[in-house]
Amino acid sequence: MTVFGEGLRIDLPVDEIPKYWYNIVPDLPEPCPPPLDPKTMKPAGLDSLWFFPKSLIEQEISQERYIEIPDEVRETYVRMARPTPLIRAKRLEEYLGTPAEIYYKYEGISPVGSHKGNTAIAQAYYNKIDGVERLVTETGAGQWGTALSLACAMFDMRCTVFMTRASHDQKPYRRVLMELYGSEVYASPSNVTEFGRKILSETPNHPGSLGVAISEAIETVKNDPKSKYSLGSVTNFVLLHQTIIGQEAIKQLELVDRKPDYVIGCVGGGSNYAGLAYPFLKEKLAGKLDAEFISVEPEAVPSFTRGVYAYDYGDTAGMTPLFPMYTVGHNFVTPPIHAGGLRYHGKAYSMSILVKNSLIRPVAVKQREVFDAAKLFSRIEGIVPAPESAHALLQAIKIAKNSKEKEVILFNMSGHGLLDLGGYAEYLSGRIINCDAVSINYDSIPMKIS
Ligand SMILES: Cc1ncc(COP(=O)(O)O)c(C=O)c1O
User: Fold this and answer.
1) CATH classification of the domain holding 275
2) Mean pLDDT of 123-142
3) 300 and which of 34, 40, 261, 335 could share a cystine (Cβ 3.0–4.6 Å)?
4) Each residue of 249-280: pLDDT tens digit?
């Protein structure tokens, strides 16, 4: 007997929200090199991470494989619509005429519209118990700023967001949402920091970049002892917090007796993809899963596919330590693609090691084909993907089209695109460009790692 709707949407009960985050660091095929102090070029001490609170620095360097999720955080995850559903894109399979099964984890169901709440909640919680009163951050597309704004509201903290000017002007409703949650929002470069004023005096129409906005956020924290900095991607602790995505997906696929042959995600700094992929990679490293892992980035910001593995700054002004990562250089001028969350110059340290060791295969795609895939998905499955997430969708479609057998393709739909309609309007009017002819100044990258 067939059961109505069986296997189309796989939900978990609320009490199945994972109790632990999975830390991949002890399972990496080689140790992650330490950050360097740019003045001495020696390993930076923990005080170089002064802009984070103590409890998150402990997580950053932890070698524990599992870290318990506090009850307050799990409870707030329920408000963020966790556990999120795993959905089978059956109409898409039929449209493509593929024998493959396509599943996606839908993080866009969260009130903040993306996976970013998973770490925002955790970071607000730990900062609060460490006595911090205000969090300061940067945001590109606005997804991260929105998530942190709500998280701060939930834990009664103040929040200041530097939003890259290009996104700020393209996505006015993101700003409204952040302000609605109680944050103060500045278009970056702004005139409220010394670094912002310097950039504006040199280039009055500067479109902003994540690197510049990070520098402004860190400068703000430096001048206010009650504030700390909060980051939405790249670091070990952010990726750690996201691993609830993959842990839930493993249980959900078990409910329909499936294991993935492909695990796919888009990569800005790496957090949503790590969140989905790392719990599955743990199975692969233990010899229990034979899947291929594919990360997807824009050709306009090709850190994995054309960048180098090097020590580089996290920000443009060079205020952070040097981090070991794949990078296109902290001075890279990011083309104005609509996937604002994929415009960062560097990639997560742990993911860089996995790519270097061929455990993750990186691919790069063009903006126009990303929007083609997103349009198809909107019409066929009904969900408008965030332009970032549509990179993963496109790769899933490419694989499904070539499938000759019943393979299982899993990808992360990291967010919805309902506040990205400006980009969609440009696409529908035929004005969207590919932005793929980027030049990388390899000489500006401080120190290559062999
Ligand atoms: C919906 C969405 N997906 C993906 C990303 C990329 O970031 P990450 O690689 O950290 O997941 C962003 C970043 O803002 C985002 O908003």
Assistant:
1) 3.40.50.1100
2) 96
3) 335
4) 999 999 999 999 999 999 999 999 999 999 99
Q: Whose CA is nearest to atom 15 of ligand 1?
A: 341
Q: Would the pTM of this model clear 0.85, i.e. be above it?
A: yes
Whether residue 3 is predicted with pLDDT greater than 70 in this model: the reply is no
Whether 1 has a pLDDT exceeding 60, the answer reads: no
Q: Tell which of 195, 229, 263 closes a domain.
A: 229
3-state secondary structure of 145: helix
Q: How do residues 177-225 score in pLDDT, each as one tens digit?
A: 999 999 999 999 999 999 999 999 999 999 888 889 999 999 999 999 9
390 found inside a domain: yes
The residue range of the domain holding 153 is: 117-229
Boundary of a domain, candidates 174, 195, 229: 229
Instruction: Report if residue 317 sits inside a domain.
Output: yes
225 and 370: one domain?
A: no
Please tell me the residue having the least CA distance from ligand 1 atom 12.
341
Around ligand 1, the residues with Cβ closer than 6 Å are 114, 140-141, 143-144, 233, 266-272, 341-342, 386, 388-389, 414-415
Measured between its terminal Cα atoms, the distance across the chain in Å is 59
Which of 266, 347, 360, 383 to mutate for ligand 1's pocket (most ligand atoms within 8 Å of CB)?
Answer: 266
**The tokens of 149 are what?**
């704004």
Are the beta carbons of 100 and 411 closer than 8 angstroms? no
Cα–Cα separations (whole angstroms), residue 364 to 236, 295, 297, 397, 443: 24, 8, 5, 14, 23
Ligand 1 centroid to 114 CA: how many Å?
Answer: 8
Q: Indicate the number of domains in the chain.
A: 2
CA of 266 to the centre of ligand 1 (A): 7
Residues 6+ apart with CB under 8 A from 294: 262, 263, 264, 360, 361, 362, 363, 395, 399
Whether residues 165 and 90 fall in one domain: no
